[in-house]
């Protein structure tokens, strides 16, 4: 876009410069002709003749130079637009040099013609008739000067008007393409798509690489994850040199609505973080008002752009410890090139809001897809798997790192899940950061086990909680080995990812879908060990989450029931020995 405007500036400026210099040249020649040659000012006659010749040659040169320069600009624009017959910059430069050489030849020839014919040659050109002396000559020269000035003024006004209109249209087009604030019909979308292709081609060469950031665009590339989803891997990539190999990676997932929690984790988490984020399809989304938000091969839609814009507002973006991958639902294909205008990423924060239909998008929230992507993106083998809203206690990773490495890496106990108790605090209260604060708030009923107020389910409960709460040892140690708590159980845990089963992706139902991995881990012979003194806290409770989960639950229940039967059959085939070690309950009573 900027190059397009610069070319326009050069063309218009070239013509304005020509018209101005041309008028000065013609006027000067007439002055010399009238007051030097025809009044015969003796000593100055020779010098005036030379000056006149130089001015006439300059006049010839300016005329043809202006025309040839404009032709060269036209060739450049035309060759840039027509990709199949594109001329290189070198070829255009050669054409320009040849044209200017031809221009010099014409100028010299014109000068000689003037010299051979003495003065009548340019006199006939510059004047309407062949008058030689007296007031009539001065009158005609004055009339000629007035005509030249009027023509120059009219040319300037005309070019200024054309330039103003072209600039206005170009700027309006730019705003329309990058900040489209009005609903556009299908015909308008097609027109602006084609126009955007023209402007994009004129502004820069397209380079199809994974991520390119320049002054105007961010270019991303997505790959096929499976038939239903597309993945943009490592949108944020950590610095490997900043990550200790024995550290624990916090593995989590989120929708755009809750991604702000990642900044809260950075306040206390000392290790790396791997997160997967579900984002809108970059080409087609139906927004809250029921209108289509459509993108193209050259510019993504607003829902996708503003999801990335929200990430730009996070402090976590500057961290060199975070791996962030993006997942979007596949509609037709996975797009190799996604172009995002940087102007949208820097939009007013008030515009970067969650304007999508959250309830509808949560009904298709692929939680287990995201968990698997985040686990694979972990830069270390030790992972802490939890929900993004559950904030770990102070110094969690640094304190647990020695024990986790001792048990899960060096102690040959890789088939072990280190269980972390989860709690929920009342809204408006400062969340507890250590066990002393937790015990005080727990005794005052300001803290309860996670999610027990909204449901009687035991999906996050652990046994021996009262004893764990009263345990006075301040060291980070194994508290107790516990049995599997049933197939409704989905605790937060630390594990070595090498032997950890993946989440079954066909069982992504938003609510209580992490339990299927824990159930398979039990069938695979994993032990469950509660860790002392470390915990997580869910800050408050938001009713909107329940509404979204209820909608998701209703949409996916029938599909989930069928997939769960297939999942149970596969467990029986893979792990027949431990079938009775892990208690089973009817799936109908789990949700």
TrEMBL record:
Origin: domain of life: Eukaryota
Pfam families referenced in this protein's UniProt entry, alphabetically: Glyco_transf_49 (PF13896)
Transmembrane segments: 12-38, 58-79, 91-112, 148-171
Keywords carried by this UniProt record: Membrane, Transmembrane, Transmembrane helix
UniProt key word Membrane: yes
Protein name: Uncharacterized protein
Organism taxonomic ancestry: Eukaryota, Metazoa, Ecdysozoa, Nematoda, Chromadorea
């Amino acid at each position: 876009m900027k190059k397009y405007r610069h070319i326009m500036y050069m063309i218009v400026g070239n013509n304005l410069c020509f018209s101005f210099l041309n008028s000065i040249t013609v006027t000067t020649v007439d002055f010399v002709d009238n007051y030097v040659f025809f009044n015969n000012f003796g000593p100055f006659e020779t010098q005036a003749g030379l000056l006149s010749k130089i001015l006439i040659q300059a006049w010839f040169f300016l005329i043809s130079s202006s025309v040839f320069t404009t032709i060269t600009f036209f060739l450049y624009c035309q060759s840039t637009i027509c990709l199949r017959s594109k001329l290189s910059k070198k070829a255009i430069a050669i054409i320009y040099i040849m044209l200017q050489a031809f221009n010099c030849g014409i100028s010299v020839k014109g000068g000689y013609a003037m010299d051979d014919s003495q003065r009548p040659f340019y006199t006939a050109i510059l004047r309407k008739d062949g008058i030689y002396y007296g007031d009539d000559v001065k009158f005609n020269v004055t009339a000629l000067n007035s005509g030249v000035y009027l023509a120059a003024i009219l040319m300037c006004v005309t070019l200024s008007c054309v330039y103003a209109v072209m600039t206005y249209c170009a700027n309006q087009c730019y705003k329309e393409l990058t900040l489209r604030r009005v609903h556009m019909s299908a015909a308008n979308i097609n027109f602006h798509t084609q126009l955007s292709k023209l402007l994009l081609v004129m502004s820069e060469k397209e380079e199809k690489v994974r991520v390119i950031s320049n002054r105007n665009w961010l270019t991303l590339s997505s790959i096929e994850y499976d038939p239903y989803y597309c993945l943009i891997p490592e949108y944020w990539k950590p610095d490997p040199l900043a990550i200790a190999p024995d550290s624990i990676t916090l593995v989590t997932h989120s929708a755009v609505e809750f991604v702000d929690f990642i900044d809260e984790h950075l306040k206390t988490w000392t290790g790396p973080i791997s997160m997967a984020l579900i984002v809108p399809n970059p080409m087609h989304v139906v927004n809250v008002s029921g209108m289509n938000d459509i993108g193209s091969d050259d510019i993504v839609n607003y829902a996708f752009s503003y999801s990335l814009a929200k990430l730009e507002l996070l402090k976590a973006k500057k961290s060199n410890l975070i791996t962030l991958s993006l997942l979007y639902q596949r509609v037709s294909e996975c797009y190799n090139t996604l172009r995002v205008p940087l102007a949208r990423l820097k939009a007013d924060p008030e515009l970067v809001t969650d304007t999508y239909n959250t309830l509808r998008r949560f009904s298709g929230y692929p939680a287990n897809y995201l968990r698997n992507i985040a686990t694979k993106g972990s830069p270390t083998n030790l992972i802490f798997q939890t929900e993004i809203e559950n904030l770990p206690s102070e110094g969690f990773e640094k304190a647990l790192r020695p024990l986790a490495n001792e048990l899960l890496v060096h102690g040959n106990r890789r088939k072990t899940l280190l269980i972390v108790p989860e709690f929920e605090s009342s809204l408006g209260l400062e969340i507890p950061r250590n066990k002393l604060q937790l015990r005080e708030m727990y005794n005052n009923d300001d803290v309860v086990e996670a999610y027990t107020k909204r449901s009687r389910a035991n999906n996050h409960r652990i046994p021996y909680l009262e004893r764990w709460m009263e345990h006075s040892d301040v060291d980070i140690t194994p508290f107790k080995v516990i049995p599997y708590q049933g197939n409704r159980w989905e605790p937060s845990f630390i594990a070595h990812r090498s032997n950890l089963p993946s989440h079954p992706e066909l069982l992504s139902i938003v609510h209580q879908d992490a339990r299927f991995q824990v159930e398979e881990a039990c069938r695979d012979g994993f032990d469950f060990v509660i860790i002392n003194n470390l915990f997580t806290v869910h800050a408050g409770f938001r009713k909107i989450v329940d509404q979204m989960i209820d909608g998701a639950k209703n949409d996916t229940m029938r599909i989930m029931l069928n997939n769960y039967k297939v999942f149970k059959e596969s467990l029986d085939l893979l792990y027949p020995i431990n079938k009775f070690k892990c208690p089973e309950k009817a799936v109908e009573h789990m949700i």
